[in-house]
Every structure is written in C-alpha cells, then in structure tokens.
Amino acid sequence: MEVNSPPISEPHPPTRVKQRHSMANNPAVLVVDDNVAIARAIVILLKAKGISGHCVYGGRDAMAWLGEHRPKLVILDISMPDISGVDVLKTIKADPASRDLPVILHTALEGNKVSTLAQTYGADGVLLKGRSTLVDVLQMVDDFGIRN
What we know:
Elements: E1 29-32, H1 36-48, E2 53-56, H2 59-66, E3 73-76, H3 85-94, E4 103-107, H4 112-121, E5 125-128, H5 134-143
Parallel strand pairs: 1-2, 1-3, 3-4, 4-5
C-alpha cells in the first residue's frame, strides 16, 4: 500500500508575530544578539534589578520565540548571521498584534545609517555598542517603564 505524503519543504520564518500566551508567563524583556556574552550580560543585569529577561542568539530564534511569547520590550542587535535585526524589526512593526511593542536597536553600527534605520522601520530607541554601557541599557529599559 502506497502512502502519499506532502513534500517536505524548507521551513520559513514566521511572517506574523502571534501572541499565544498570557503576559503573566512572559519575561519582561527579550534580548536578541548573536554575541552570547552581551545577551547574557544584559539579562543578568536586568535580573539583578528585578526585571525578568530572556535571550536568544539570532533573528530566526527571535521570530520563533516572539511567535509564542509577548515581552514588554525587545533589545535587538542589527547585525546577525541568519535574519538581520532590521528584518525582525520590520516584521514586528508590520504586524498589528505587535506593532506597539517597543524595540531598542543595540548595535555596533554607527552614524546616520543607524538613525535612518531606526526612523524608517520604527525602532523606539538606539544604543550603540562600545559607546553605551550596561547602565545605559538599564536606563533605557527604565525610561520605557518596564517592570515585571
């Protein structure tokens, strides 16, 4: 007996960010950075200040995680090897379910390019790696009124 199954295709990143869980079960801040040390340091610092955080290490992981969870804030690196932070930002801001989610770009890119990207795609803030300290990160999180 022959069984017909659909062809297996390459997985595609989600095109919409869907909230599937209540806000109570979600960390307050999602940190997305392919530099594991930076992502973990930010989450540890947030935790020390009583703010829950979760880190993922690429754009594809961010989109998958956001498909299941709804943080109060995203701290997003721009330059990542799989899906760029700009593409993640565009997806977040294009979806009515997540367009109000604040996103801070955290990047090593400098100059007008970062400001242009932030304005064009709706980022809510920019922190420059190498110029911004972890204290600056905490201050911006506080500026957005993020609490558990």
